[in-house]
Amino acid sequence: MKIPGGMPQIISKEDFEKTQKKMKERQHKAAKFSAKQDYLLSGKIFCGQCGSTYVGNSRRPRPDHPLYVSYKCTKRNDREKSCKNTEINREKIVKIVLQKLSDVLFDTKVIPSLVKEYNKYIFDKNSEARDKIKIIEKELKTTERKISSTVELLIDTGSQALKNKLKEIEAGAEKLKYELAEAQSEMDSPIYTEDKIIKLFNKAEEKLRSGSLASRRMIIDQYIDKIVMYPDKIEVYINFLQNYKIKETVEQ
Ligand SMILES: [Zn+2]
Questions:
Q1: Smallest Cα–Cα separation from 126: which of 118, 137, 115, 114?
Q2: What's the pTM value of the predicted model, to 2 decimals?
């Protein structure tokens, strides 16, 4: 070790040992830190061959080698090594996924056609729900009429058999009301304008560009439905809006 002026710096044996100890501690800390890896895609990657989940994995091929961080099939990890599907480098898959996200969500040239498709999907879904609602409402009316006529008969006769029958019809009416509420909630999906969607995605893009781990995680959680791994391709399922998903395939 040299100091400016060319004078050799003399450190005592004791100081030297102290420094060594500190350096070791720092190395240990660094190792500990790197052992706790961020697996942004945990819970989102699945094996296309056996259906298991892919899990994060890190190892050093040799003590002096850089850490290799990846995702691989849990069945590849197990004792029998029953799945041979490929392992993938963490940086590589994160890059692919984020790239696909920006290709789809942040490309203003792509958005108009996506919005059109989405709105058509919602329109069809809504008209399906509308038809369903009509049918259920009609059935419900019939059931309610049946209930009142049964009640009248019951007042006249007091028959136990009719009492049981009434309970049965009332249960049927409850079921219909539940189905009606469900069909009505399906109608809630709004039709979007291009403007609104572009604004929405601009916000997401800003978050992603900020580059922080927290915002990356947030965007991945929200917009990545799942990733399915195959030996020769990767399927990325993107949540576009609500339940509308887009599938992108990346050949390897
Ligand atoms: Zn597998």
A1: 118
A2: 0.63
